[in-house]
Amino acid sequence: MGRYVIRRLLQFVPTVLGAMFVLHYLTSVAIQFTGNPVRAIFGDRTPPQSVLENLTRRLGLGDPCLEQPFNPCFSLFGKRLDAIFLHLDFGTDFNERAVTDIVAGALPHTARLTLIAILFELVVGIIVGVLAGLRNGGFWDYLVKVSTVLLIAVPVLVLGLLVRDFVNVKFGNVLRGVDGMPELISRGFFAPTWSSNHPWASLLMPGLVLGALSLATVARLTRASLLENVRADYVRTARAKGLASNRVVGVHTLRNSLIPVVTFLGTDLGALMGGAVVTEGIFSVPGIGRQVFAAIFTGETTVVIGIVTMLVLVYLIASLAVDMLYAVLDPRIRYD
Amino acid sequence: MTADVTLDVEGVADPSRTGPALEVTDLQVEFRTRAGLAHAVNGVTFHVDAGETLAILGESGCGKSVTAQAVMGILDSPPGFVTGGQIRYRGKDLLKMSEQQRRAVRANQIAMIFQDALSALNPVFTVGFQLAELFRKHRGMSRAEGRKRAVELLDLVRIPAARQRVRDFPHQFSGGMRQRVMIAMALALDPEVLIADEPTTALDVTVQAQIMSLLAELQRERQMGLILITHDMGVVADVADRISVMYAGRMVEQAPVHEVYARPSHPYTKALLESVPRLDQKGRQLSVIQGLPPTLTAIPPGCAFNPRCRYAREECRQPPVPPLYEVADRHASACHFWQEVRQDD
Ligand SMILES: Nc1ncnc2c1ncn2[C@@H]1O[C@H](COP(=O)(O)OP(=O)(O)O)[C@@H](O)[C@H]1O
Ligand SMILES: [Mg+2]
Fold first, then answer.
1. Of A82, A111, A288, B232, which is most buried by a Cβ count within 10 Å?
2. Is the domain defined by A105-329 classed in CATH 1.10.3720.10?
3. pLDDT tens across B138-152, in order?
């Protein structure tokens, strides 16, 4: 196990470097074609050439390669690696605010959002999947099958906008008109956008939206895998042991049925992080996604690279953790 | 039917452990599948006494496992349904009990060993957990007590280093050791009847013998009624007291073991015997039974064996199904022409 973890950690190196280089190259090409993004800081005003050049150099965008289309700017990439890995300096935005500070401010929101989504998709998804599996072919099973297909078919963007406009705005407005309605509900859970007065409550709806798609997949996976396992020989053994059916299903069948769900969770983390960017945009949550969005629009390449690099690291570590969990659930898996 | 003879066994620890423990009468099981109605068990009758071994013999697909599952009450239902008959444990009909009462019988009074221990043991729990679970759920013991009993059980079935091995998962055992775990699990609550469904089929020949002798020894020690299900005529000779031969969901012959070998009275039994290699008849041509067992959705009318039978006549192709004729003391055969079969050698 220990050696496996070390090997996986070593594999992170090319993954992270590769991701960084792709980001670096894309942002460099963008600058090579659209011109120095620093000019935008001055808006309509034309700054004196010396001031502009000074600022550009300070922000690390003074390299002449950024004026030559398709130049990969290897020396600039080297400088970035040097700053990030040797000095833990992730750079600044155009206002010279450290990227690490930006992340520190935004990360808690994203972490909460993702946590809500994961809890929602796992708890509700597994319960719904188990019920559907146990009532195979019944009405409830049918309902779950249809509704999960619908959820999977609707993109997060559409679902998010629909929920925001119809549930949080329209229905929320009705609630906000009701006397004696607790603030936590009318301006928290049903807040039209994220509100700093209710940092958790107003994150719930975006979290549900973010988790909905994966919830549908978790429910279907649990259902299919439970159906496959209820006929397994060891389940028959468990019944022959005179165990109550709650225990046969809840302990013997479920534990095996959850193995594919955990595998899915590993790949789902990436999808959730992508979905978080969209969801944060829709509900104006000041999380990481919003920051990346903003940085892309203003051409703050350092911010984009810094944040996305951290996200890649978070993703890699989380999926390693999921793989460990997988080994705990299924003792036949041996990492060595 | 044949009279029950209580075996006079020395050293019976528990005096209640005599007489018929399990009696199955006219059991019928069907599977309602999309492909049609499969009549897997069509009126099976047998009984097993405490301290006695009954072998149920038959080709694969003839309904042996389904019979065992029906007795245990663990049929996959749907599609499987018991549609008739009685299953009496010590006189009480299990089919009339509530699910809760039946659950209490499982493992406590009637336990079962499955063919393939690798798939029959849960892959994600340690064998210690799976053994201790029985004591925790049926006897209300703590985890620690259960664990202690699990070690004792592994010792009982002679698994070396039991204290360490309780912590292992099923896949970490060899095939033979895994089957020993299965046996330990079945014996945990000291049942009176043990059903072993092809307990050695998945094992190497050398290991088969060890497992069979372990099973036979434990059965003798504990005065259990053992129902040994097998399709292998070779396995039963040494351990069984009586044999019931099954074909297409029916018993076609029932007799003490030596009777079956000396004077088989049903063409199917005879054919089975001729397909077993025997040391005393080395060099003899082994015969295989021609044809296949019938599909259970379309069992031929009359005697189900008639399409494969060399004694078959017109009478055999017409209903009714031949009844179990009493051909000798405690020996029954469901063949109209049993006399001919017995004479013929
Ligand atoms: N779960 C099931 N669903 C449908 N049919 C079944 C099922 N289990 C058994 N059967 C039917 O019962 C027949 C007898 O099976 P079984 O008792 O397992 O045979 P064996 O004598 O080899 O143990 C099979 O041929 C099959 O048609
Ligand atoms: Mg079988």
1. A288
2. yes
3. 999 999 999 999 999
